[in-house]
Design a protein that fits this description.
Elements: E1 16-18, E2 23-26, E3 31-36, H1 42-53, E4 63-65, E5 71-77, E6 80-85, H2 91-102, E7 107-110, E8 115-121, H3 125-132, E9 147-152, E10 155-163, E11 166-172, H4 176-188
Antiparallel strand pairs: 1-2, 2-8, 3-6, 3-7, 4-5, 5-6, 8-11, 9-10, 10-11
């Protein structure tokens, strides 16, 4: 019987493109871990997160970088967070490490293979996103660190404003090519 080796590949092949006034980059080495806070154990779970990451747990609709800058906690709901760990060669090892650090106080699930993670940045980024995103992304309202669940071109999306003119977008890996096409088209139509 032959020997087979499975090798993880980026959903979009490590896509990176500069359009001039905006660019898109696949963050294919991003590990995503879902944290569920146990019913009745939310306070203890938040204390564990504060201890492990060195920062206060964000409020729903916000995110915060860990003290060492290696992780971003994204608060999706009262009892759910995503942890985005960038530049991880082995996303499953990152999950196992996170699971070990958090112990029994928080339920964890590896989400790395479920979401395509794209970063869109540049001076025309907001203009391009406003064409396909139904929420108010004005910088006075959607400040750095803000995040939300929404849809873009009928595809479920989590949008995070990570810096000035920079957004991180998560969408289902099963429709990664369609999502990328929607972003490319919107950028091209705002040039």
């Amino acid at each position: 019987m032959g020997e087979f080796t499975l090798k993880a590949e980026p959903f979009l092949g490590g896509y990176e493109r500069d359009f001039g006034s905006a660019s898109i980059k696949e963050l294919h080495q991003a590990a995503i871990v879902s944290f569920a806070l146990p019913n009745g154990g939310e306070t203890k779970a938040e204390q564990t997160l504060n201890s492990v990451f060195g920062v206060e747990c964000p409020k729903v609709g916000n995110s915060v970088l860990s003290k060492d800058g290696s992780a971003r906690l994204m608060r999706l709901g009262p009892d759910q967070l995503f942890c985005l760990l960038r530049d991880k060669q082995d996303t499953h090892a990152a999950y196992r490490d996170m699971n070990q650090k958090l112990g029994q106080d928080i339920y964890t699930t590896d989400q790395s293979d479920v979401w395509v993670c794209l970063e869109i940045s540049g001076s025309q980024t907001l203009k391009a996103l406003e064409r396909i995103c139904p929420i108010d992304l004005h910088p006075d309202h959607f400040t750095i660190g803000s995040m939300a669940r929404t849809t873009m071109e009928h595809l479920g999306t989590i949008i995070l404003r990570s810096a000035e003119n920079t957004y991180v977008l998560l969408s289902a890996s099963s429709s990664a090519n369609s999502f990328l096409h929607a972003l490319e088209t919107s950028i091209e139509n705002t040039q």
